[in-house]
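Worked Example 4.2. Consider the chain below.
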Amino acid sequence: MKRLEVLGWWFNEQAPTELPRPQLLVAPAAPERRAALAAFLRAGVALVRYPEPSFCRFACGEEDMGRADLTDGRFVWPEGLAHYVERHDVRLPDHFVERALAQPLPPFALPKAKFGLYDAGPWIAWGKAQRACPDLGGFEIPTLDVLDRIAEDLGPVPHEAILACRGSTRELILAIAGGGIELHQLKAGGRPPQRFAGWHEWPLCGDAPQRSAPSPMSGKPKPGVPMGEFFARRKQPRDERP
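Applying the procedure from the previous section yields the following structure tokens:
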């Protein structure tokens, strides 16, 4: 199966992953170059449509940027990607830009939408090379049952939401009052919480390490262990644990 290379998948502050932050990819371009690139993006053919519209990650007020994924047969991108290029001067990978500016949208056979068709790997690798991706290695978005277990162990710690968790180090990323975030280790006697004014202060992939090395933990969970498995095992009586 020929896969489509993803463009324009952005970091979501409420569901954090290592996708790029568009604010870190701003680079003004010549108006005619920007207009030609936006025109190519808008000419893409709709591949998938979604019930809810996309919104602008720059919080510029644009809350309905389309509901479709568009493609040229080689790449796939959200319908609203042209907005980022035109209004916010967001740059895209050179190999795509060269293709877009070299010719009009070429004819192609529209692939069938199915699992595995999209390839986000090159997009994320490019974003990391541009130092536009938050360093969230090992963190994952917790499922509902994991959230319940974390909330029980977190107790009275003030927070507005549990955004992500890392089972290997028992660390949580919490949304806190005022729009900030907090790195919290869920362990008695662990490191003190580390606060950030927002995601713009969070370390990026490629930065020098800014967080101290993990403290030893009872039970010595293996690196990369899913948070759900970690908490499930933690609830077992000690003589029943593997």
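The chain has six helices and nine strands. The two ends are 41 Å apart (CA to CA). Compare this with Example 4.1 before moving on.
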